[in-house]
Design goal:
The complex is a heterodimer of chains A (about 290) and B (about 280). Chain A is mostly helical and about 290 residues long. Chain A has 13 helices and two strands; from the N terminus they run H-E-E-H-H-H-H-H-H-H-H-H-H-H-H. Chain B is built from twelve helices and three strands, in the order E-H-H-H-H-H-H-E-H-E-H-H-H-H-H.
Chain lengths: ~290, ~280
């Protein structure tokens, strides 16, 4: 017999196998990374403990700072823009009874399920100055002055990568929002209409608050995506031209596997992890407070 | 490394003789440009044309300087009149519009396809593109060494005939490893490589392959090799060399650095590396 309040042991037994895998393949490697971040290590010889030197080096390294700045700039393309687009599409298709709305939902979601490597290769073709449809289109409609080597141009390389992020993320955001809207009580809209609320006022005062949780989830996921982006950069630009599209995950990779500076790479990886962690916690907390206040 | 050339375009412009000097080459590029064709097929997206820069540089420097630079000997600087002149030459090429339009955003392999499709007179690249250019249109292309500055003078051609292999002191089977090294450098292995249309590291003298292009590549290599004019890949000089050159070449093309700043930036990284050796 179990006394009230006594916990059963067997739920832990069910969790144990998955937790053991998590410990071995996620948690311990993370600890190892933190440990190596305080060393100078070439990957072959024994690591030498050097304290916080790697961290000092990172915050004074122009390439690190530029990459961090690029990641921040990408949050506009990977996070803010997709959420804005997602909200617009949701307000257009979710409650309109538009025939074929399912088609648009599915079409919008497709980019998100594709491997980013595939996405990168395909967009690389679109942007190509040789045979890319983008420049061909601009030339066909008489705007050949606007045609440029998108990924090789200092002014357009980062936005060009960013647009791809928007294209990948907005479908995911849209699906979240559309699903969220469907569980908002229809009576709220009815009451709003009776009070003479316009479509915009309904969206502003009923839809948006009702999507609070979905927006939080979308923010966390897309913010994380904008900080961990690697595949697109690797396939498209390798950080070029002259680090214009370099991002943190890419310089971690370069330092670890090209320059054999594993200690320094580990320190930058720890910083990247910390940034993602802080942002996620901050966003979730912020929404919780907002939720409590509402 | 050297210059692939398009035989159809060479005929079109009456370029019957390979350029004897670098100035002759530039004159040919002018002729092609004036005729409305692309003088140099180029895609900078992957490697920013580092080997093109190095090819020009290595016609200007002495073997002694290049060896010192690569092996970190004698505390030399990368900031020299020659390194600046090579950078100025590239800027000059940009200004004269010698390169494929949009080259900053073109991948290296796409540039090779453009060249294979006849879109350019010269393609400044390595022999590894030989097999790509030896397809259906295989006999349309030839290969020459980058010409020297003075007629009959000497010029280095980039080549990487040595790869650093090492056998660990603690290896359990050093003889087996050594036997493998013997095998990959054997005539038989070289013949297998040549069979794929790739220029083998040695035994290239007198080697003949299945295509005219391969034979021209082999002849160019034999010429450089016999005159002891095989140069180096300059990015091998220091661990971050490849990225340092790429970043600064992109800045150079975009006119965000001058040739003087370009070599100063690279020398700064190079000196930082030399300092770690002491």
């Amino acid at each position: 017999m179990r006394r009230p309040g006594e916990r059963a042991w067997w739920p832990y037994a069910f969790i144990a196998p998955a937790f053991a895998v998590y410990l071995a393949f996620v948690f311990l490697p993370v600890l190892d990374t933190v440990r190596y971040s305080f060393t100078q290590w070439d990957g072959l010889t024994a690591p030498v403990f050097i304290g916080i030197d790697n961290y000092v080096r990172a915050v004074t390294d122009p390439v690190f700072l530029q990459s961090l700045g690029n990641n921040l700039a990408l949050t506009f393309w990977f996070c803010l823009l997709p959420i804005a687009i997602g909200l617009v599409i949701t307000s257009l298709i979710a409650r309109s009874g538009l025939p074929g709305a399912w088609f648009f939902r599915t079409a919008a979601f497709l980019p998100y399920v594709l491997s980013l490597v595939v996405v990168g290769v395909a967009w690389g073709w679109i942007y190509s100055p040789v045979f890319g449809p983008l420049n061909q289109f601009l030339e066909a409609i008489g705007l050949s002055d606007l045609a440029r080597p998108w990924l090789g141009d200092f002014d357009t390389a980062l936005p060009a990568v960013g647009v791809i992020g928007t294209w990948v993320q907005y479908g995911f955001v849209t699906i979240l929002m559309v699903a969220g809207v469907q569980k908002i009580d229809e009576q709220l809209y009815e009451a709003a209409r009776l009070d003479g609320a316009s479509s915009w006022q309904q969206f502003r005062n009923v839809t948006l608050p009702g999507l609070r949780n979905e927006i939080t989830v979308a923010l966390v996921f897309t913010l994380i995506a904008s900080f961990r982006v690697f595949d697109l950069i690797f396939v498209l630009t390798k950080g070029g031209p002259a680090n214009q599209t370099s991002v943190l995950s890419f310089i971690v990779y370069k330092n670890a596997f090209q320059y054999n500076a594993l200690g320094y790479a580990a320190a930058m990886a720890v910083i990247l992890t910390a940034i993602i962690l802080v942002i996620s916690v901050f966003v979730v907390r912020w929404r919780e407070r907002e939720g409590a206040a509402a | 490394m050297g210059l692939f050339y398009d035989k159809n375009l060479a005929t079109k412009y009456g370029l019957t003789e390979p350029p004897a000097t670098f100035a002759d080459l530039v004159q040919q590029l002018d002729t092609v440009k004036a005729g409305g064709d692309v003088p140099i097929t180029f895609g900078a997206l992957d490697d920013a044309g580092i080997q093109m820069y190095a090819s020009i540089l290595e016609t200007l420097v002495t073997p002694q300087w290049l060896d010192d630079f690569i092996y970190g000997r004698n505390n030399i600087s990368f900031n020299t009149p020659e390194t600046i002149q090579a950078a100025k030459t590239l800027v000059d090429f940009v200004d004269k519009g010698y390169f494929t339009k949009g080259y900053e955003g073109i991948k290296g392999d796409d540039a090779a396809k453009l060249f294979a499709a006849g879109e350019g007179a010269y393609f400044w690249q390595g022999s590894w593109y030989g097999p790509t250019l030896t397809g259906a249109a295989g006999e349309n292309f030839g290969f020459i060494r980058t010409p020297p500055q003075a007629a009959g003078g000497s010029a280095l051609s980039i080549g990487g005939v040595g790869l650093p292999w090492s056998i660990r002191k603690t290896s359990a089977n050093p003889d087996c490893a050594a036997a493998y090294l013997d095998w990959i450098t054997s005539d038989h292995a070289m013949a297998l490589v040549a069979g794929l249309g790739v220029l083998p590291g040695h035994a290239a003298e007198g080697a003949t392959g299945t295509s005219a292009l391969f034979n021209e590549m082999a002849a160019a290599f034999a010429d450089a090799s016999s005159k002891n004019e095989v140069g180096h890949y300059i990015d091998w000089a220091f661990p971050t060399g490849f990225d340092t050159f790429l970043d600064n070449l992109a800045l150079l093309y975009a006119k965000k650095v001058t040739p003087e700043q370009f070599v100063a930036n690279i020398d700064k990284e190079y000196q930082a590396f030399l300092a770690t050796l002491k």
